[in-house]
Amino acid sequence: MRRRRDPIERSYNWIDVYESTDSGVSWNLLSKVADTDDGKKNGNPPSMIRLKDSRLVVTYGYRSSPMGFGPR
Predict the structure, then answer these.
(1) In degrees rounded to 5, what are phi and psi of residue 50?
(2) Is 36 within 8 Å of 15 (Cβ atoms)?
(3) DSSP symbols for 1-45
(4) Which residues are CB-neighbours of 1 under 8 A, at least 6 positions away?
(5) Sign of the C-alpha dihedral computed for residues 23, 57, 11 and 65 taken in this order
(6) What total number of domains does the chain contain?
């Protein structure tokens, strides 16, 4: 999983999930998981877990003015 950021003039952030089927030699994009707002640090750090019922859950942080921080 990784957080992506477009060039500064667009200030657009998102989180992608990739998979490897060859022990990390190559990677394939599975999906864009989330669009995050335009703060430079929003979306970090993404984390993913598998629940007992096999669902996947992704969490990531967001920052808000003036000094807030919370999970999404």
Answers:
(1) -105, 125
(2) yes
(3) -EEEE--TTT--EEEEEEE-SSTTSS-EEEEEEEEE-S-TTTT-S
(4) 15, 16, 17, 18, 33, 46, 47, 48, 58
(5) negative
(6) 1
Domain that holds residue 61: 2-71
Please enumerate, as own/partner, the contacts of 60-64 that have beta carbons within 8 Å and a separation of 24 or more: 60/3, 60/15, 60/34, 60/36, 62/36, 62/37, 63/39
What are the pLDDT tens digits along the chain (72 aa)?
A: 656 666 666 666 788 889 999 999 999 999 988 887 666 666 667 888 999 999 988 888 776 666 666 666
